[in-house]
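re: ur question from earlier - yeah i can do the single chain one, its not a big deal. heres the input i used so u can compare w yours
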Amino acid sequence: MESGISNDTTFRIELPVFEGPLDLLLHLIKKHELNILDLPIAFVAERYLHYLSLMQQLDLNIASEYLLMAATLAHIKSKIMLPTPPIDQSDDEEESYEDPRAELIHRLLEYQKYKEAAEQLGGRSIAGRDVFGRGSPSLKSESSAPLAEIGLFRLLDAFERILRRVDDRQAFDISVERISIRDRIRVLTELLRERRACSFDELFENNHTLYEFVVTFLALLEMTRLSITRLYQADFNSPIYINYALLDADEPTLPPASDGD
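and the output i got, formated as tokens:
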């Protein structure tokens, strides 16, 4: 992907509320079906840096916590690569040896526990989440379970799959007349207002250049941050769907235009 491809757009996407470095590590563990108690640090570090590189190329704002975690992974990797203690060492030396991954694994397990608890609470109805009636039976829904909301890293996976299906020559043919993220939001809003929902892939059907693909993706992130859209997925490997979250009478509040808009 061409470096700095989104620099000519009218505003930069800021994602402080999406997800953090521990979310990215848990995403990698789930995606690649890794054993959280026996993390392959070299592999995880390589994939983690790949995501950071993609986020930087998309001009996403990367919090310092991501870079600190990258340094932590590199430090753990270097400690693992050190020679193991000799077999004939004393018992005291054996007992003093500690797995360099132990602290990180403990943090991941704790974070995973509280994240899952928060997701379960967030999925409850307001009555069951904030108000607890004494002796009231739990409500059972007759309809099918809703699709789960998804986060940034699954979107990055889906976007990479989109780009891999694009012809390289066509994708890098950057057009002179470039649409801004703000203009793309207007186009996508009109599309979703009419259709109410569509798949992730359908958003990119009329894109022809790498720039257009990137701007569409960044526009979707901004629309989701502004609660114009909601993103859902049945399970980890299922298609992503986008729902229009506003009522017909509502007008989306777009970020202010820059001087060049």
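Residues 21-84+99-244 form one domain. not sure if urs matches, ping me
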